[in-house]
Amino acid sequence: MGFKEFKIYQMEVLHHAHALQLFCKHAFKMDSPPHDYVDISRDIIGKADGLPLALVVIGSSLYRKSKQLWKDTLKKLNLVPNQDVHHKLKISFEMLEDAQREIFLDIACYFIGEKRIHPHYMWKALDYFPRSEILVLTRMSLIKVDDFDRLLMHDLLRDLGREIVRQEDLQMPGKRRRLWCPKIALDVVQSRMGTENIIALKLIGLSKEQDFTSEEFSRLPSLRFLELEGGNLVGDFTNLLSSLRWLSWHRCPSDLHTVNLCLWNLVVLKISDSNIPKNWNGWDSCLANRDLKVIHLTRCHLSTVPDFSTCLNLKILVFDEHSPKSLQIGNSICKLERLKRLEIIAPPVQLSKLSESLDFDLFAVPSAIYGLKYLSSLKLEGQCIQELHPSIGEMVSLTCLSLRDCHQLRKLPDSIGKLRSLLELDLAQTEIIGLPDSIGYLKNLEKMSLDFTPIRELPNSIGGLQSLLVLDLLGTKITELPASIGYLKRLERLLLDQSEIRELPKAIGMLENLKMLFSQDCRNLEGEIPMEEWNLSKDITWPPELWTLSISCDDPRSLTRLPFTLRLLELSDVKLPLEEPFFSNLRYLRNLSALSLFRCRLKEVEFEQLETLHHLIVVECELLVRLSGLSSIGKLEELTVNSCSQLLEIRDLGELESLKTLSIQDCGSIERLPNLSKLHELRTLHLLHCESLQGLPDVPNTCHPYVHGCPTLCGSGDKLRDCRKCCKLRGYITAIFPTWFYGVPRLARPST
Questions:
Q1: Please, what's the largest Cα pairwise distance for the chain?
Q2: What is the pLDDT of residues 495-523, one digit of tens each?
Q3: CA distance 745 to 148
Q4: Ranges 507-521, 676-690, 708-722, 727-741: which has the least confidence
């Protein structure tokens, strides 16, 4: 197997003390080893060469394992050459049981970025125990499951998994179990070199669409995973693909050219970007298994939905970005008594075209949906629903209800309060003007989104939401919050950006778990946060756990009594100078690690005594000419300066000995940067669209510069030899507000 390009890079290694701490964090769940594990821990760390991934994976694999297994692991590491990272990681793979290895290899080859629940049903049909197996892989740090329930894996672990598969037979790909490279898979199928070993094929992204014959698939009796793009199946498929559990087909044909195709064991069916006619001849083949668990249709043109009478054990049914305007839901859906997730999501539509929006009215199908007693997640997004039927209260198993983008929905029925199991309620970008008092009965609700709705006030009963963690009021018409909001003792995140809030109640100080408070662009807010009488007040009470504060602020002098727990501070729209006393007043914020200045109308910013700051972002400060005082921020690791068109100078930049990342973008006036060669920690330098920049500064050998849109640097000779030219720069996207600043992804704001 040949490779067209190689990517050579120097992996960062940790010093011994940091390596020991990282290893122990995963091996013992503490910062140092027990006294009887000190020597063997140091030996294992030495063999891991300080590589963070190896330390994490090996440490996680040894957690709560016997001392003998520790000794065996060390012996195996002693046999591996120092630079052979794959073999060190493979030691953890070899600790896995058979089913865990199979799931790990499936993820490495096919399921990175896939929602966990979909392959879960495939693995369960293979008599694995995916819930516990995934937990083991996660605890061993071999995979991750993110907040969106997606399966993730480090690139090195992905490469390890694929290399393990490749080693099954170096010369004959047809004898390997998994083929994820489409060209190799196509060659094996068309040359009829497939064997019963093959369990998974990926045939997408080919230069042209391919038809596949029954004779070609007759050599693949063990196939359980198949991913196709375009093309067709041709011939008599009697007794073929009988082991198939997963079929994914992008641009599926509207007329299958096959006969006797019966997918008796299919568990997951995913079809996308396809035109499916009313009497499509593929439904009988695909819905033959009464234990089919997942039907996921994305961007498909559907005249009608199929008859679900043959797959009564369906768990997940998704129509994502369906068309045409009217999606006819047949009565057979009410037979899906075991259905847990139903999603009917319209394609994006501009507000100006709402009159042409998709037509789906719950009153037309009450029996078809409200009778699904086991349904736990219901998403009806972008539909023409004017109001919910009171029968919604009978769906007592619901944990998630999303009516996002239903632009005609104006109210909720009182029966919504009966959904006692509800964890998430999303009403964003609807026309909801108020909430019923019964909303307070949702004692288990953890997240409620009302962003960009015309709602003007919250009922006092909102204080009954004792489990609420996130309250999103972004862009609403709300002018004040009820005092009962102080009873939301578990609330961690409150978003008020772009709302019409005028003041905050003093009860805000009762929110003992509030960590994130966003209130930018609140035009009606009098004074700062909280109101004018709170400014400079000695008896101000901030939420005791507040660690993120994002506010618009004309005069920074009103912010002298910020909560000492603050870690992340974002200031926007500052008009008066940020003078030395302001920054010296921040000295008591011993936890402050990140500061962002956004859209501040300042000509100069001089920093002073911010000794704990690690991250500094300066964005869209169009009048800014000079940044100075950086030498007082001795621990600064990341500096981002974006869209400061008049910036001429960044003083003391060459003295930031801890700096690891420097990004300067769209600063068209800056002409020179100082010598950076003494910044030995600097790893990344991004210079984008700085048209006046006259020369690339000297940087340490460990630094990797990226230059794009800086025309005067094109002839910089040797200094540019390590830069990736514009045409090589792919995938670099500047994040104005990185996710580390907020702890969670920042909500996108629609353009105004």
A1: 83
A2: 998 899 887 777 888 888 888 888 877 77
A3: 12
A4: 727-741
pLDDT in tens, 136-154: 999 888 999 998 999 999 8
pLDDT band at 736 (very low <50, low <70, confident <90, very high): very low
Show the DSSP H helices in 83-220 as ranges: 85-94, 98-106, 117-125, 130-139, 155-166, 182-190, 214-217
CA dist 695 and 725 (Å) reads: 15
Distance between CA atoms of 742 and 469, rounded to whole angstroms? 15
Looking up tokens 């859906």 gives 333
Give residue-wise pLDDT tens across range 576-607: 665 555 666 677 788 889 999 888 887 888 78
Enclosing H/E stretch for 42:
helix 38-47
pLDDT at residue 358 tops 60: no
Q: Are 176 and 162 in contact (CB under 8 A)?
A: no
Write phi, then psi, for 342 (nearest 5 degrees). Answer: -130, 125
Going along 153-272, which residue ranges are E strands?
178-179, 200-203, 211-213, 225-229, 232-236, 246-250, 257-259, 268-272
| Site of tokens 């040797």 | 718
Name all contacts of 66-71 with Cβ < 8 Å and 24+ positions apart: 67/40, 69/95, 70/37, 70/40, 70/44, 71/40
Q: Which residue has the higher pLDDT, 172 or 86?
A: 172
* Rounded Cα gap, residues 644 and 627, in angstroms: 11
Residue 397, pLDDT score: 94
Cα separation, 198 vs 184, in Å, equals 13
| Nearest Cα residue to 397 out of 335, 316, 339 | 339
Long-range contacts, stretch 567-570, CB < 8 angstroms, 24+ apart: 567/591, 567/592, 567/593, 567/594, 568/592, 568/593, 568/594, 568/595, 568/596, 568/741, 568/742, 568/743, 569/594, 569/595, 569/596, 570/520, 570/595, 570/596, 570/598, 570/737, 570/741
The tokens of 31 are what? 């910062």
Query: What is residue 590's predicted lDDT score, i.e. its pLDDT?
Result: 82
